[in-house]
TrEMBL record:
One of its GO terms (molecular function) is metal ion binding. Signal peptide: none annotated. InterPro entries: Amidohydro-rel (IPR006680), HutF (IPR010252), HutF-like_N (IPR055156), Metal-dep_hydrolase_composite (IPR011059), Metal_Hydrolase (IPR032466), Metallo-dep_hydrolases (IPR051607). The lineage of its organism: Bacteria, Pseudomonadati, Pseudomonadota, Alphaproteobacteria, Hyphomicrobiales. Pfam families: Amidohydro_1, HutF_N. This is Formimidoylglutamate deiminase. Residues 48-427 form the Amidohydrolase-related domain. Keywords: Hydrolase, Metal-binding, Zinc. NCBIfam families: hutF, PRK09229.1-2, PRK09229.1-5. It is an enzyme of class 3 (hydrolase). One of its GO terms (cellular component) is cytosol.
């Protein structure tokens, strides 16, 4: 069915334009016309329309444990003590719990400017580590939450075989993650069935990390779906780098690049601790650096060398990862501020005399779309009609237009000041509220009260 939408102002690939008419066919933009009159009674959107931001990395179930890991561990706290809290939390979850928690996270993603998600999905099995009758039951829970909320989905079932470098056995807390190759192939088949009825959904693969798979798994798993995205955690923590050097003699990204040919299908999540050669190698490969600035700050990971990576032509996007705070603008702000704190300079991602916020938004949309493997991230023909509108009546945006409004939305508002969110032509957020916010929240609250009471 053909329909038309009218945007008062919109960011198009060539820049900002006024009075933009979009023609859609089954949720895909087929034509864009600037300077077109609004149609009385039509679907007309106020404010400033931006391409919706793809969220290139999330573990949806972790939204339920947000705030539960802030008690200091002994003798000190780190990513590794946080991981133990995570293992204890996921011990309690069944597929219905995961669906309720994911739906809450997805509502918050949509209200926070994210219109698509690459879900790095490693919680597969029952509480004793045995597969469910449907090995993809947990993936089905993620898909059902996406269907309920309208969030675009790239599902990335994770291959997880070992507990650490050197093919160390998985520990007790990892038992719900582990599959051997034959089981993983069945998991992929079940995951494909889970997303079959979702509009424009995509399936990819994800070797969890160099700690959790054998080196020969990397080529094998990436060959299972040769035209689809491949995501991997890499070089997030200094101890990970040290362990890789000790056991393999090579740094993690160096080892990865020596083992498989990186290309535009690949998304390297975190990639925080890099040598200059590793950083430039990722940029030259065409792979995407998947940055999660809020989570990386929370976990004390370190600071990605974003400025020199961008100067080398590297593609990047942002993800909400542990989902402790879900807001596309906040991720971009934290990314820029981390570089400012390290280098003691300002406006680092922008070209001279250009907008920092606009540079960040456009680059992260492009990198996120590539990582999701979907035609999103642009208001242009051939792309899904995924966009947000900024609320120009918000105090942070009053009197602002164009790039200045984008800067203000990212750097001067407590949360991204949204009015509307449209995904595939469907309105899912109006006046800043998701259409299913209340029902999703009630179900989420019931699940969390039960889970925490039983802790």
């Amino acid at each position: 069915m053909t329909e038309t939408l009218h945007l008062a102002e919109a960011l198009l690939p060539e820049g900002f334009a006024s009075h933009v008419k979009l023609t859609l066919e089954q949720g895909v933009i087929t034509a864009v016309e600037a300077g077109a009159a609004a149609e009385p009674g039509g679907r007309n959107f106020r404010g400033i329309a931006l391409p919706g931001m793809p969220n290139l990395h999330s573990h949806a179930f972790q939204r339920g444990m947000a705030g539960l890991s802030e008690r200091r561990g002994a003798p000190e706290d780190s990513f590794w003590t946080w991981r133990e809290v995570m293992y204890r939390f996921l011990d309690r979850l069944d597929p219905d719990d995961v669906q309720a928690i994911a739906a809450q996270a997805f509502v918050e993603m949509l209200e926070g400017g994210f219109t698509a998600l690459a879900e790095f999905h490693y919680l597969h099995h029952d509480k004793d580590g045995r597969p469910y009758a449907n090995i993809a039951a947990m993936g089905q829970a993620i898909a059902s939450a996406a269907a309920e909320t309208g969030l675009g989905l790239t599902l990335l079932p994770v291959l997880y075989r070992f507990g650490n470098f050197g093919q160390a056995p998985a520990v007790h807390g990892q038992r719900r993650f582990v599959n051997e190759r034959d089981a993983y192939q069945r998991l992929l088949e079940g995951s494909a069935a889970a997303i079959r009825d979702l509009p424009d959904a995509r399936l990819g693969v994800a070797p969890h990390s160099l700690r959790a798979v054998a080196l020969d798994d990397l080529g094998w798993v990436s060959s299972l779906r040769p035209n689809d995205p491949v995501h991997i955690h890499v070089a997030e923590q200094v101890p990970e780098v040290e362990a890789s050097l000790k056991i393999t003699g090579r740094r993690p990204v160096e080892l990865l690049m020596d083992t498989v040919p990186l290309d535009q299908r690949w998304c390297l999540i975190h990639a925080t601790h890099l040598s200059d050669a590793e950083r430039d190698g990722i940029a030259l490969s065409g792979a995407v650096a998947g940055l999660c600035p809020i989570t990386e700050s929370s976990l004390g990971d370190g600071i990605f060398d974003g400025i020199r990576y961008a100067q080398a032509g590297g593609a990047y996007g942002v993800g909400s990862d542990s989902n402790i705070q879900i807001d596309a603008g906040a991720e971009l702000r934290q990314l820029e501020y981390s570089q400012r704190l390290r280098d003691r300079r300002r406006a680092l991602f922008a070209e001279e005399e250009a907008s920092t916020g606009l540079a960040l938004w456009q680059a992260a949309c492009a990198g996120g779309a590539q990582a999701c493997g979907r035609a999103i991230g642009r208001i242009a023909p051939g792309h899904r009609a995924d966009f947000i509108t900024l609320d120009t009546d918000h105090p942070a945006l009053v009197g602002r237009a164009g790039a200045e409004a984008v800067d203000s939305a990212i750097f001067a508002a407590n949360a991204l000041p949204l009015r509307d969110v449209v995904v595939g032509g469907r309105s899912v957020v109006a006046e800043g509220r998701h259409i299913a916010r209340d029902s999703v929240r009630v179900r989420f609250a019931g699940v969390m009260r039960r889970l925490l009471a039983a802790a």
